[in-house]
């Protein structure tokens, strides 16, 4: 790896760390500002309050409080839930929900990306044919229609009209219960990836190096496989970022719709019953996830593309 | 021996603005070991002609009529058994046949812009080895050895290290050498160089031309140069074809074209060529610009830009006239007709040619 | 071959050869609209946007019902000739509620995007035009803000501020301006280096003159296209917020809150959710189609032949 690459990576990591600091700062500020936080909850007994004060060092200067807060967050101590279930550590509420949310999210990304890439390449190879037009229409639809609309329609059709899948999330049969949510979530991913892959592929196919590869006498299939696809797919990594954001927002609503016991529905429940510790903890988790994924995507892009577009970050 | 023979080639492109007749009856001959140059302004159809030879016309391009005959010298490649005789019309071949028999193995091409013609995500070594691996099913070690030799042949130092490099790590001149090495990797007989030096630094241009010349001698290649630069032509070509608006308007040996040009368009091109010791401060340019080929043209397309245009030029298309005393020099201009008034080439040009002859 | 008598005389036709025979390349607003109207998707999208907007404005005004009048005698009536879209669980007419909800959704989205443009444009202009240290600092700030998931910003902000029309617009604005700023800056950087700006600078043009006369007109098209893409996004986020319980408070309705309310009884009265969902989906799709068309019409070179 060259020095400029390392510099670029260093910058990305630094930004990620600063971002996390800012986020924690915001969360901390909210803790101080919001009514009904553990520190000024009127339901707390004096003894409990004293315990909390001691634990979080609230007699200390604000800066030290802030760092104690960070330390606790990092250690996975998100405080105690007061609304959803009394006196449960928030971590206990969160932990069992992580695999469900992540499982569905990851399944949707993988499914959506693979189908999207295949569709995109197919459409590019058959540019301006009926199949291409249909694929394009489908992708416009998929890009513009939010996943919860798809979810509602799927639920009405396959849950209510033709009851193939359970309407309520069935924890005894997670696979069956996850099918509709995964399809609904992956819909947008397919459309986004497919649309992007198509335009990248069309660009690559008209490039000089494809002409040269053809002029070498290579088989057309080989040219597409070895030269076109790789170059078309590298930029697809860049849109995984925005796609993941969509996915996170989408999953919050979807978990409501399918009553999936995941992080999103926990957050929504937290908002409705004013359980601030839960809200802050889930927000923190989402932020770490997001910042981390963005960083990984950036680094991945640098590794896969030998040119490494350093200029991109400038 | 004639290795490539193009007869009456017509190519058109379907566009939103109607049918563009880009090539309108081109004839071209290429003999073994010789170099021909196709010269003309941009848009005159030089590149289209060579793309047709390679069978890599853009999707909306159609060969309407004509033939491109390629003649095998001695070795039939095994796959070609079903092609009768030793000559094959490239126009009639299917895409698969073209790819299997002609492209790369018989006719290879060096593209204009080395910055964009290499795959950015594949190592140099792989790009050079690829045709050997897939076209000739050579094993990896042999291909590697041959790729090394090729890189050395095209003047790349430290070839072993360069094999592992990606294109962006090399300079433009180096990349063009790589492109040449790729073209040579399947031992072609004909090498088409499409403006091989236009995108390069002036200092490197000469070196690349030397290199191609050198390789041509070593491998006994036939070369087609496409260029708008008469300076390049002077350095490399045996025969010159001057192309205008999809037609060849003058053809001849290098001496005939440079010292005894007949077509007013060639006069223009030669006069427009800057040289160091031109004492006239005015550079001659050809007035106007190439015609819009989407329109049907009556007569000679060059007429509107020709200050010596005759009435007949607006009525009939001129045929190819033989220049007296030569069997290689031909000109498509009514001025060559015995009835036409005798026109002298412009004084400045005469002066220029005289000076060239002196040197 | 037959020759005419004057065939071999000089033609001496004074062709106007220097009037170059240029392919007519369409330019100007007229041609912009011509290209736009050629795009079927954009036309359909535009028509739907107009129809939906008209309904959103007119329907609540002319209807005999009010969006907030509760009539318990007609709770959850399916669509019929008096109540075209039926009534909700409180007996409110859904036709009026859907269209006034659309009105609010559109209002929220348009306002948010408008503020985005203003703020983002100013931010991008300053950052791009001044360059140097100012630019570097502004870029880092922008980068950090854009690294915080908007989902988190939106929910946290609304948790402390309580959802209302104003706070929802504010929340949308907080996350939306970054794209505008990015586009403006990129364009400014590009245009700043172009010949015509250099030319006017050498002629002694002031910064303000260059910004307003040279740079702004050139980035305006881009911004309009970007905002066309942002509007459906804002509509979506508004609906999203409603769905997580941070929507416009009752009795007012937006498409998001209608969908959220309807969802509670989806198994019994699916029409309550289906109708607003269809309006929302159509609206978002139409804006995207129009935006696509605008982009292609604005810059035909971006679209491959």
Give a nutshell description of this structure:
The complex is a heterotrimer of chains A (314), B (359) and C (305). Chain A has 13 helices and 2 strands; from the N terminus they run αααββαααααααααα. Chain A has helices at 3-33, 46-56, 62-74, 90-94, 98-125, 130-144, 147-161, 174-205, 208-215, 220-233, 236-257, 263-272, 276-304, and strands at 80-81, 88-89.
Explain this structure.
The complex is a heterotrimer of chains A (314), B (359) and C (305). With 314 residues, chain A is mainly alpha-helical. Helix content of chain A is 74%, strand content 1%. Chain A contains 13 helices and 2 strands. Chain A has helices spanning 3-33, 46-56, 62-74, 90-94, 98-125, 130-144, 147-161, 174-205, 208-215, 220-233, 236-257, 263-272, 276-304; strands at 80-81, 88-89. In chain A, helix 5 (98-125) runs parallel beside helix 8, helix 6 crosses helix 8 and helix 8 packs antiparallel against helix 11 (236-257). The radius of gyration of chain A is 24 Å and the shape is flat. Chain B is of the alpha/beta class and 359 residues long. Chain B is built from 11 helices and 12 strands. The longest helix of chain B is centred in the middle third of the chain and has 18 residues, at 202-219. The two termini of chain B are 33 Å apart. With 305 residues, chain C is an all-alpha fold. The model of chain C is unreliable at 19-23 (pLDDT under 50). Chains A and B meet through helix 9 and helix 10 of A and helix 2, helix 3 and helix 6 of B.
């Amino acid at each position: 790896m060259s020095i400029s690459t390392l510099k670029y990576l260093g910058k990305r990591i630094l930004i990620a760390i600063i971002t996390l600091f800012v986020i924690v700062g915001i969360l901390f500020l909210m803790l101080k500002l919001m009514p009904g936080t553990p520190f000024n909850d009127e339901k707390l007994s004096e003894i409990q309050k004293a315990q909390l004060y001691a634990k979080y060092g609230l007699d200390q200067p604000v800066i030290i409080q802030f760092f104690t807060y960070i330390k606790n967050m990092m250690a996975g101590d998100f405080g105690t839930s007061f609304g959803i279930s009394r006196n449960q550590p928030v971590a206990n509420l969160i932990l069992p929900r992580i695999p469900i949310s992540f499982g569905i999210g990851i399944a949707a990304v993988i499914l959506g990306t693979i189908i999207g890439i295949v569709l995109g390449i197919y459409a590019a190879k058959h540019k301006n044919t009926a199949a291409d037009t249909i694929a394009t229409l489908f992708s416009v639809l998929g890009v513009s229609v939010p996943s919860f609309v798809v979810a509602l329609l799927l639920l009405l059709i396959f849950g209510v009209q033709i009851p193939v899948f359970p309407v309520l999330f069935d924890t005894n049969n997670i696979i069956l219960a996850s099918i509709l949510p995964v399809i609904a979530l992956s819909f947008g991913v397919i459309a986004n990836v497919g649309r992007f892959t198509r335009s990248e592929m069309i660009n690559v196919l008209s490039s000089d190096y494809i002409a040269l590869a053809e002029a070498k006498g290579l088989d057309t299939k080989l040219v597409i496989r070895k030269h076109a696809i790789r170059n078309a797919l590298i930029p697809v990594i860049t849109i995984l970022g925005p796609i993941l954001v969509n996915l996170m927002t989408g999953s919050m609503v979807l978990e409501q719709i399918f009553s999936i016991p995941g992080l999103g529905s926990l957050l929504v429940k937290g908002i409705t019953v004013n359980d601030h510790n839960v809200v802050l903890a889930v927000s923190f988790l989402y932020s770490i996830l997001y910042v981390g994924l963005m960083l990984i995507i950036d680094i991945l892009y640098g590794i896969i593309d030998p040119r490494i577009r350093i200029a991109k970050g400038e | 021996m004639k290795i490539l023979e193009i007869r009456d080639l017509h190519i058109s492109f379907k566009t939103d603005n109607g049918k563009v007749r880009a090539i309108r009856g081109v004839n071209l001959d290429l003999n073994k070991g010789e170099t021909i140059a196709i010269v003309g302004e941009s848009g005159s159809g030089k590149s289209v002609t060579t793309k047709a030879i390679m069978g890599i016309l853009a999707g909306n391009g159609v060969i309407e009529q004509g033939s491109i005959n390629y003649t095998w010298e001695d070795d039939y490649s095994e796959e070609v058994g079903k092609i009768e005789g030793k000559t094959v019309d490239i126009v009639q071949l299917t895409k698969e046949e073209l790819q299997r028999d002609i492209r790369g193995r018989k006719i290879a091409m060096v593209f204009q812009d080395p910055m964009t013609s290499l795959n950015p995500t594949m190592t140099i070594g792989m790009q050079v080895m690829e045709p050997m691996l897939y076209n000739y099913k050579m094993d990896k070690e042999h291909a590697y050895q041959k790729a090394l030799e090729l890189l050395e042949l095209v003047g790349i130092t430290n070839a072993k290290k360069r094999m592992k490099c990606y294109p962006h790590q090399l300079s433009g001149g180096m990349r063009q050498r790589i492109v040449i090495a790729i073209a040579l990797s399947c031992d072609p007989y004909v090498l088409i160089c499409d403006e091989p030096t236009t995108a390069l630094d002036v200092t490197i241009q000469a070196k690349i031309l030397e290199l191609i010349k050198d390789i041509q001698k070593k491998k006994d290649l036939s070369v087609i140069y496409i260029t708008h630069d008469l300076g390049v032509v002077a350095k490399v070509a045996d025969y010159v074809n001057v192309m205008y608006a999809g037609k060849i308007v003058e053809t001849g040996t290098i001496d005939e074209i440079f010292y005894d040009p007949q077509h007013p368009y060639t006069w223009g091109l030669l006069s427009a060529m800057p040289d160091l010791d031109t004492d006239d401060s005015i550079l001659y340019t050809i007035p106007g610009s190439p015609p819009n080929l989407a329109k049907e043209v009556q007569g000679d397309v060059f007429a509107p830009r020709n200050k010596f245009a005759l009435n007949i030029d607006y009525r009939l298309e001129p045929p190819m006239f033989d220049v007296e005393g030569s069997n290689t020099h031909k000109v498509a201009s009514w001025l060559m007709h015995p009835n036409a008034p005798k026109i002298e080439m412009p004084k400045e040009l005469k002066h220029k040619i005289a000076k060239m002859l002196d040197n | 071959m037959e020759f005419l008598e004057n065939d071999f005389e000089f033609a001496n036709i004074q062709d106007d050869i220097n009037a170059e025979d240029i392919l007519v390349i369409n330019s100007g607003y007229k041609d912009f609209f011509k290209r736009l109207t050629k795009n079927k998707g954009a036309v359909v999208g535009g028509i739907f946007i107009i129809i939906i907007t008209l309904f959103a404005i007119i329907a609540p005004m002319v209807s005999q019902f009010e969006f907030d009048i509760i009539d318990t005698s007609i709770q959850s009536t399916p669509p019929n000739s008096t109540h075209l879209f039926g009534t909700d669980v409180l007996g409110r007419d859904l036709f009026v509620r859907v269209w006034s909800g659309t009105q609010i959704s559109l209002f929220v989205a348009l306002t948010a995007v408008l503020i985005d443009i203003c703020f983002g444009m100013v931010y991008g202009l300053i950052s791009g035009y001044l360059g140097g240290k100012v630019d570097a600092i502004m870029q880092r700030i922008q980068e950090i803000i854009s690294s915080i998931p908007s989902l988190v910003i939106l929910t946290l902000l609304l948790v402390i501020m309580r959802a209302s029309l104003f706070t929802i617009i504010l929340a949308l604005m907080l996350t939306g301006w970054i794209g505008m700023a990015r586009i403006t800056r990129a364009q400014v950087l590009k245009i700043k280096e172009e010949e015509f700006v250099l030319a006017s600078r050498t002629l002694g043009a002031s910064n303000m003159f260059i910004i307003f006369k040279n740079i702004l007109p050139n980035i305006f098209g881009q911004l309009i296209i970007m905002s066309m893409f942002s509007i459906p996004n804002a509509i979506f986020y508004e609906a999203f917020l409603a769905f997580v319980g941070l929507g416009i408070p009752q009795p007012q309705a937006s498409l998001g809150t209608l969908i959220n309310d309807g969802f509670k009884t989806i198994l019994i009265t699916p029409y309550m959710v289906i109708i607003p969902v269809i309006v929302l989906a159509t609206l978002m799709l139409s804006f995207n189609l129009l935006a696509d068309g605008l982009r292609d019409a604005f810059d035909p070179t971006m679209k491959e032949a």
